[in-house]
Design brief:
The structure is a homodimer of 391-residue chains. Chain A folds into two domains: 150 residues, Creatinase/prolidase N-terminal domain (Creatine Amidinohydrolase, Chain A, domain 1, 3-Layer(aba) Sandwich); 230 residues, Alpha-Beta Complex (Creatine Amidinohydrolase), CATH 3.90.230. Helix content of chain A is 34%, strand content 19%. Chain A has eleven helices and 16 strands. Chain A has a six-stranded mixed sheet with strand order 4-3-2-1-5-6, with helices on both faces. In chain A, helix 5 runs parallel beside helix 6 and helix 10 runs antiparallel to helix 11. At the A-B interface, helix 3, helix 6 and helix 9 of A face helix 3, helix 6 and helix 9 of B.
């Protein structure tokens, strides 16, 4: 069963085509797996080989190009007719300098009479590397290849009712995982055991809804390692007395994500940790009260920065990003960010992960929320006590 | 603590430099996270932003370029001196068309006097997209950029004693997960619950060693979906009577992987499933008895193909690939494959995932092993009964 009505996919396609038209793009070749999913529904763990979706007003519906052995995955998860699923044989993978999947893509476009069009490609995305680009260019000498990075990502910004429902489910899932993880953390407990419990909760889901694997594995450093922004658990480490821990997790449902971060201290937290947590929470609360339709992203960041600056703190990195549908390696949507200079204007039903993580000298504190911009403000999709947890 | 002695990293660097020299590459810029880890030890969940490692005989040791907030991750996980960790500020991420991390990389190379060298880049890898390449090219007008895809991957082929130890641990972990998953599968059990159990086992590890997240989430379709090669579990599905299930899982330890696949039938398997499993196992056994130093990859594939052809079966896709150190999106090493035309000669301590998956009309069977080429043959690293499991 498709996660959305066929009409919702078609509505998305219509909006994408409108954006293409505005940018003078006649054919769009999408390789980002989240964008492929958004357009067609395609959902499989096959994104480590080249694959893509073609959108064009010259076509009656999108075309999905995938590996031969994934045909059934495409037939089973997309809304289009069988004719729009075009598989390539494995030999296109075997000697990528001799015969490449992009040669096959070029041939498909030629066959459809689209080889001499203005073709948009996702130049700056995870799944379109330099070699693929060169091969596609070579395969399409009569085409004009133009950059269409994030064209679809921007369309994904404002979520539909159904998409928000899925993010709510992802939020219920991550809340449960976070609750149990905080419960499980204790002196002498193995870090990997807590991680195992987290994944178990993320996948078991709620009583009604099962979970999916998150696009990024939990970030969950302990002790000094909290000073780094992207540490996993350690394989043999055990939690110790007087240790600081933060956990950045996300539930996933139908590939929709709702990240949540909380910080825990095992023992009596030192003044500086308590103080940092207080400032982060105050900054986060000010951020939440600033967000509403019509406000720009830079204004949101400014409100946060001003708040923490009062206490002598400063955050150099962006403090929020759009979130929703995603595949590995990460759950960001790669469009709007809460950062200086970002002029994007907030609109209802945009969804963000507000990420006020502070990585300081020898320790770090992160307390975050996934939010939705409402008609006149914002609400958190994640619901969890906003505090420094003490164990 | 580093997973390897400093001398092992230095030995790797030496071998990489030798290969660079043979290819006339003066500077190597590595962005594949597994290759970065192999050279420096760098291990963090930060691979979704641009980062890289520079190797050159002009440098006393490799340089690691990472995001400012990941400095502590680099200091904590690499063997080099502090001076060789060079962080870039977040502003290089904010407007990738205006200011890009590759501009920063260009500046670092210029500062080191390496801007006019012959520089190898990993053109055809997951983490070096078309835009990065264009920016690096623009940033280094005096350099000659050449393709060095898989240069480091090939060096990684023959494993050291310590690397094999880690793969053995990953194997013990995946065996436990597979054992329990087969135990847990039953009529009416939720697929997501079995998946949760698998992740729990993969991360809890053995009594002694904790596990890490695998580079690819388990592939575990049930019923008709076994006809597709890359399905995950479903969020609400429950296992049913007379259903076929296969599970492709991997343990991970210090990022070393040992994948294993088994097929299960819930009930009395129909003749065609029983027969396919028998053929796959026979083909796998013939493959194992063919593998030894001096044999080429195509000869191995030929032995497999000939065996299954006798029974009227044929496999179009490659039936094995090198495996070891990896990060998402997948655990293949992207070097040698068991496929027609592959002239790579097997050597002792190369490690492969033998992947005789058959995706047929309406069902699929996969029974696989991770193996090591020994001095005079091969041995499986994964140890698990090689049969069709009946529940």
């Amino acid at each position: 069963m498709l996660p959305f009505e066929k009409t919702e996919y078609q509505h998305r396609e219509k909006r994408i085509k409108k954006s293409m038209e505005a940018q003078g793009i006649e054919v769009l070749f999408v390789t980002d797996p989240a964008n492929m999913n958004y357009i067609t529904g395609y959902d499989a763990l096959s994104y480590y080989v080249p694959q893509g979706v073609i959108v064009s007003s010259y076509l009656k519906e999108p075309i999905c190009i995938i590996r031969q052995q994934d045909v059934y995955c495409a037939l089973h998860t997309t809304w289009m007719s069988k004719e729009s699923i075009i598989p390539y044989p494995d030999k296109y993978l075997w000697e990528p300098k001799v015969l490449h999947v992009m040669d096959f893509v070029g041939d498909v476009l030629r066959e459809k009479g689209l080889h001499n069009k203005r073709i948009g490609v996702e130049l700056d995305s995870y799944y379109f590397n330099a070699h693929w680009y060169h091969r596609l260019e070579k395969s399409l000498p009569d085409a004009e290849l133009v950059d269409a990075t994030s064209l679809v990502n921007w369309i994904r910004g404002q979520k539909s009712t159904k998409e928000l429902e899925y993010m709510q489910i992802a939020a219920r899932i991550v809340e449960k995982a976070m609750y149990n993880a905080i419960e499980n953390i204790d002196v002498g407990v193995r870090e990997c055991r807590v991680a195992a419990g987290i994944y178990s909760d993320l996948l078991n889901g709620t009583g009604v809804y099962g979970g999916e694997y998150p696009s990024l594995s939990p970030i969950m450093p302990a002790g000094e390692r909290t000073a780094g922004a992207h540490f996993s658990w350690t394989t043999e480490g055990k939690y110790q007395k007087d240790q600081l821990v933060y956990m950045e997790l996300s539930g996933s449902y139908k590939r929709y994500h709702a990240p949540l971060t909380r910080t825990v201290f095992i023992g009596k937290p030192p003044e500086k940790v308590r103080e940092t947590a207080k400032i982060v929470i105050e900054g986060l609360n000010v951020t939440l009260s600033t967000i509403k339709p019509g406000v720009t992203c830079e204004e949101v960041e400014q409100a946060w920065q001003t708040t923490i600056n009062q206490y002598g703190l400063e955050k150099e990195s962006r403090m929020g990003y759009t979130v929703g549908l995603s595949y590995p390696p990460v759950w960001t949507e790669n469009t709007a960010y809460f950062k200086p200079g970002e002029k994007t204007v907030l609109k209802p039903n945009m969804t963000f992960h507000i990420m006020p993580g502070m990585w300081l000298d020898g320790y770090g504190v992160a307390i975050t929320e996934t939010i939705r911009v409402t008609e006149n403000g914002c609400e958190t999709i994640t619901k969890f006590p906003r505090e420094l947890f003490i164990k």
